[in-house]
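Anyone opening a protein record will find just a pair of labelled lines. With that in mind, the following record should read easily:
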Amino acid sequence: MAVTVTFVGAGDAFGSGGRFNTCIMVDGAGVRFTIDFGATSLTALNKLGIAHNSIDAVLLTHMHGDHFGGLPFMLLDAMLGAKRDRPLTIAGPKNLEARIGAALDALFPGSSARAAKFPINYVELAVGQANDVLGLTVTPVAAKHTPQTDPTALRVAVDDKIVSYSGDGEWTPELTQASRDADLFIAECYFHDRAVKGHMSYPDIQANRAAFAAKRMILTHLGPDMLANREDVEDDCAEDGLVITL
C-alpha cells in the first residue's frame, strides 16, 4: 500500500534559501499526519493548497519554534476561521499541553482559555517505547540537542511502511535505532563541512551512511553552508513541496 510523504517545509530555523520551517506530511491509507509543525507551516500548507483541517495528528520531535511554533496559528484558525469539527491529536514530549498553551498565550494572549469546539487529544510520547497514536506506531529515540526541548528522533510505522526522522541533533549511535530498515529516513544536515553543536553536518552523513541502514535517505534542514555546496552533495536533499511515494 502506498504511503506519500510531502515536505511542506524543508528549511532550517531561519528560512535559509527562502524555505519554510520543518513540516513533513505523511498520508497513509486512513490517516494524515505531520511530523513537526514549524512556525511557518500554516503559510506553507496554504501555498500548497492543503487544508490544515485535513490533518489528523501532529507528531513533534522537540519543542523548538521551528518545529512546533506553527501550532498556535493552526489551532486558533481551526477555532475561529476554518471551523474545524473533527478531532485533532498532538503527540510529543512531556508537558506538551502546557507548553503549547504557553505558546498560544505568548503569541495571542488569552487564547489558551478559549474552548475549542473540536476534541484536542494531547499524547505525551514515552521515549524508547512504541506508542500507539491513531493506529500509528510511534517510537521516539533520544537525540542530542538542546536538553530543554526534550529532543527525539521519531520512527513511525504507517501501514506497511516505516518513515523516520532524525529531528535536530548531533550524530549518536542511537540514531540507527530510528533509521534501520526504514523505507525513508529523513536526516537533518545543517552544515556542509564543519561540526556544529546540536546538529549533524555532511561529514556525519558521509561517515555513517551505512550505519543508518535505511532503504532511502533524504537530507533536510539545510543551512546556508549546505545550500551553497549542494553540487558537492551526493545524497538527495529535500525541497519545499517535494512529494515522495513509498
Observations:
- Helices lie at 41-48, 65-68, 71-80, 96-107, 175-179, 202-212, 224-228.
- The radius of gyration is 17 Å.
- The chain has seven helices and 14 strands.
- The chain has one domain: 4-238.
